[in-house]
Amino acid sequence: MFVSSSRFWISSASALVAVAAGSLLIACSDTRNFCDPLDCTDLKVTAADSGKSFNLKVGQAVILSLPSTGPVIVTNTNPVVMAQVENPRSGDVPFEAKAPGQARLGVSYKSCVHATTPCSFEVTATVIAIPLTQVQLSDSDAGKTSRVRVGQLVLVTLVGTDDPNYYEINAQPAGVLGWMLPPTVFPHGTWQGVLRGLAPGHATVTLLAPTCLEGRSCVRSISFNLIVNP
After folding, report:
1. Whether the predicted pLDDT of 1 surpasses 60
2. Is 220 in the same domain as 181?
3. Range of the structural domain that residue 104 is part of
4. What pLDDT digit, counting tens, does each position of 87-97 carry?
5. Domain shared by 48 and 74, yes or no
6. With pLDDT > 70 as the criterion, what percentage of the chain qualifies?
7. Beta-carbon neighbour count of residue 116 at 10 Å?
8. Pairing of strands 168-172, 8-9
9. Residue 21 within any structural domain of the chain
10. Alpha-carbon span 208 to 191, nearest angstrom
11. Based on the domain organization, do 164 and 225 belong to the same domain?
């Protein structure tokens, strides 16, 4: 999807929808290799999230969790994309995102005799590989000017929303930059997108977001200046 000269909203059809109701846990990042898979994860989903979809970056982890009431059966439509990294323990099943793609994950009790406890659930995981980028931008870079060459990539990262449609994007002029990875929400409320330099020029990318609650009309503006060299 290319950035146009007019303001537009990222539609739910072009952006991936992330789970907002899942319980988020603190990531162990570089220490994950030293963590128990059930203690070090990026996202934990339960029966309350049944039928939902979420996004993961390659290397991130998720736990599917049922209350500890008996042995469980695990289903995974694409083990190449999402690998189960340990046997179920107390109803918790850990997975790690291994490759770009999509997988349907499920967990159910071998025998369900509980009238009030969900016996199974399924979710869909979409795994995305973030490419190597030459420039990385965040809130702290607002108002600054960065330089890239035609064909190089810019990673934009903002934190604090689980809604992929939260930001309205206005880029001027058209044809200088385009989205290689449309803005996507990942665990921990991380909003990321990757821009590619398309043609030499000076472009300003402005992101507008409502920041007030209780019906008050407020807008937050973040702008990045990018000079694309040949």
Report:
1. no
2. yes
3. 36-128
4. 888 889 999 99
5. yes
6. 77
7. 4
8. antiparallel
9. no
10. 14
11. yes
